[in-house]
Structure prediction request, 571 residues.
Amino acid sequence: MSSSAAAHPAHENQLSFVRQYIFSLDHKVIGKQYLFLGMFMALAGGLLAYLLRWQLAWPESAVPGMSWIPEPTMFQGIIPPEFYNAIVTMHGTIMVFFVAMPILLGAFGNFLVPLMVGAPDMAFPRLNMMSFWTIFTAAMIMLASFFVPGGAASAGWTGYPPLSADAVYTGVNWGITLWILGLALEFASFLMGGINFLTTVVSMRAPGLKMMRLPLMVWMQIVAAVIFMLSVGPLIAGAVLLLLDRTVGTSFYAVQKGGDPLLWQHLFWFFGHPEVYVVLLPGIGAVLEVLPVFSRKPIFGYKAIVYSTIAAGFLSFIVWAHHMFVSGMDFDLVMPFSITTILISVPFTIILLAMIATLWKGAIRLATPMLFALGTLMVFIVGGLTGIFLGSASADIYLHDTYFVVAHFHYTLISAVFFGGFTAMYYWFPKMFGRLMNETWGKIHFALTLVCFNLVFIPLFKAGLGGEMRRLYNPFEYDFLKPHQGLHQFATIAAILLMIAQLPFLVNFFWSMFKGKVADRNPWQANTLEWAAPSPPPHGNFDTAPSVYHGPYVYSAPERKEDWQPQHQPH
Ligand SMILES: [Cu+2]
Prediction:
């Protein structure tokens, strides 16, 4: 465990390239491996979204006025119908399990948790390495599944039987079998990660770092780890049953042989709703770190935030059936699940109010991390408010499975993953790579991203309110949906602009990694422990073992504006 910390710098130079960068035991290298895997998978999962959007905007022909794009002749639209279902499924699966989790928990959790608790590394470095290579294998299985007979899984990211269970519906389809296998490996990877995070925080904190002095990012990471570990077990059991139904002809989910497909829906959503918080909490954690630093004020209501997070984590286990209001479940259960769902907005409202109170009368500096933190709040509030509509059973009966749901969960998850992820990226980049990112390009990236993101998803709320069901290959075959084509074309063009808006980030990210201004230890003048280590921290992290004498957010407003600029070393 920590005993080897002193020996680390000595043997670092002797490590081969493979041991230093490929099969590394260093939590910081492993964190970066997760980051690059997540970014690569975001490219794959993102491109699938563009095929979807293209199909939805112009389902019957090539793009009008763009004659250089060949007119599709083999099939009706831009992509064949079977492939459309596979794309819907794999876009969701990849984005949630292979982008959101690797980036927010794998990358930032791994990189930050040991540094923020003042530890030289994770409690179990070999387990840490194994968890990365397990999810790497899982990701490759997912990508490979596009090329097996029958193509990738096409039963939706929720994998409901009978579509996912019965070969009658899916034909000879290896895709879903590989999908189950890939997800099982992904779950195993994050179980290993969760054990590591928890043990590190419980047993390796610096002297004086009581639990109630932990940075909120650490609290968010460990609550997310606990929620994940408690919710995933039943789903793994359910997935084994699904695999047996598919491969050896059992009938756990087959109605015609006495099984029940609703069993899967319960097991899936018992995991699925907490899973949203597993990715949401670290995104909120990044915002909670950035707000006090960039308003030079202590966080408002630290304890209230910690207890609200734990309460939200607890409540997330008793809301799952709000995904099943129209499944024909016992009506006596509808109202309790409606109430718990609306109740869960209370802890999140407390956290939001604490964030706003932190900003109140602060010496606010709108650097890029702060802009993205505020953007996260804006987008998350829309996601949260529209969740109240869906949590109320009477409204949900109309809105269920419409584009309103699609827009709602993109607002919820993109706030955490996209805006929260960029908050973390811009804020901790100097610590990860030892150089500062360019502020001007960061601000341009933020402004374009915020505008384009809203332009993509606001039309989808409208389409959902107009009764348009999601997952339709060609919605405009139905007369009443014909007027919606304009909404989809608008969303598609905005989505293309959103993709272009990411170019400033990509250029800034890779350029700054090699050419950015060399960062000081503590460029943002923050108080949490990761900033006490050199940038980037060496193997073993701290040159002198840190001790903690107060809570993490002891700030006061600077007297001179010049004292409040990013610090970098003169060349
Ligand atoms: Cu839910």
About this structure: The domain at 2-564 is CATH 1.20.210.10 (Cytochrome C Oxidase; Chain A). The chain has one domain: 2-564. The pocket of copper (II) ion is lined by residues 273, 319, 322-323 (CB under 6 Å).
